Amino acid sequence: MNEIMAHFKPRIAPQPLYTDAELAALTMPILLIAGAADALLPAEKIAARLSRLAPSVAARILPQTGHVLHTLAPEIAPFLAQ
After folding, report:
1. pTM for the whole thing?
2. For the chain, which has fewer Cβ within 10 Å, the N-terminal or C-terminal residue?
3. Is the pLDDT reported for residue 26 higher than 90?
4. How far is residue 63's CA from residue 39's CA, in Å, rounded to a whole number?
């Protein structure tokens, strides 16, 4: 673990926030997968805003899941194959 943390550089800048107009201008299909128990980002709020503004959103909030999402390739691959 020390080897991993020796090279870890946490993001200290604020997360970019896109305007409503920028999100509404997105025309491609969007897949949002987020953890309901994410301590860093409000998954439900993000999904609601994105679904309201962007024309083609598939949002999936994973219950009892935090910020780190892994082993999701089986769910992502069909979306990418569309």
Report:
1. 0.79
2. N
3. yes
4. 13
